[in-house]
Amino acid sequence: MLENLNRAGEELGYKANIDVNGPQTPGMGQIEVTQRNGTRSSTYSGLRDKLVNRKNLRISKYSQATKIKLDESGRACGVWYYRHGKKHLAKATKEVIISAGSYDSPKLLMLSGIGPKEEIASLGIKPKIDLPVGRNLQDHFGTFIMPFTTKEFSSFMFERDMGMSAFYEYFTNGTGVLTAPSAITGQFFFSSTTSTRSDWPDIQIVFVPVAPSQMIIDSFGRAMSIKKEIFSEVITPVIGQDGFAFYVGLVRPRSTGVVTLKDKNPFSDPLIDPQPYSHPDDMRALIEGINLSIKLVEETKSFKEVDAKYVAQPISACRLHKFRSDAYWACVTKHTANSVWHPVGTCKMGHKDDPTAVVDSKLRLLKTKGLRVIDASIMPKIVNGNTNAPVIMIGEKGADMILDYWAQQNLVCNYMEYIKYLDNQRCYYY
After folding, report:
1. I need a surface site. Which of 39, 68, 211, 232 has the fewest CB within 10 A?
2. What pLDDT was estimated at residue 40?
């Protein structure tokens, strides 16, 4: 049904088959994935065979980093970690690199005494470096708009189509329905009226051509943290009919959240407060996206060709609001809001004079030495698309900067001078 989506968008004046990895352009495009032979190809699976036998790499499984060790000058010189209940120290002669993600990177820094001074002191942690670690949390939040019904055999139905032939096609050829990530096939980017630029979309509508089923109620709702009774109320009346759903996501949020520590126990989970829709423009933008997703179906010939209809009834939790009004959609969004797991920004990159910055443009932690953060947490602003490819780029760029820096040291720094002089007189300039 991807072709129906493209043609429907064109009927409403949007471009079809856009390059979602090219310049910012409102319009429809196919989902881009990192796959090999129909299977997800992650950075680990893509590099695993090249790394496992390297003599200068040791992978310590079943280990958890708990604290960055700083010497008397404030330079990072190692990492404390636990493995099978025993504490170990991994020493660093050059740099420590943190790549624990937007939740655990700030957690590790704060456990090490690096973060908001008064906040970590209140937990019994000795403050060492005062930085706004854990602030500026941004994520992509949205909601599902469903169900839409269509004519028979126009969508994927688990009970009907998830047979041996689907598994055979996948395992034999690496093709077929099982290669579609979360059964998603298409996406639509557009700019709401709250956006500061019409050519920089702030809404992403994801097309999910999957028929309503009990599996969605039992499993998908739990995975997306949506109450089972809400999914059941919406989907049960149309189980057995072909159909699809839209996921409407806010990809340029104005709202920001915070990551803090629960206590000084390194094995406690961090406290995560994303504060979605705390900025009023975010909800207004999302509601425009919801209305556009329904308009794509109800006002275009392309979807009428497959007898597409929006057949939802008001959910009980929002019956006090007029059905399909802005107030109703705001209520639905608050009851079904979910993240698509794109958290960024908690160790923000910025100029050394920026009071909200944690790392500089070379991803070095401010106010200290020998410590970098290289992951999604360094993004000052969230990208308006999936974060997988940008985070791979951050890793590649960070690796290049490290290699470049230490290559320069080899050119300008005589080894005997390096070991002869005290730390503040050594010829490296990090």
Report:
1. 39
2. 86
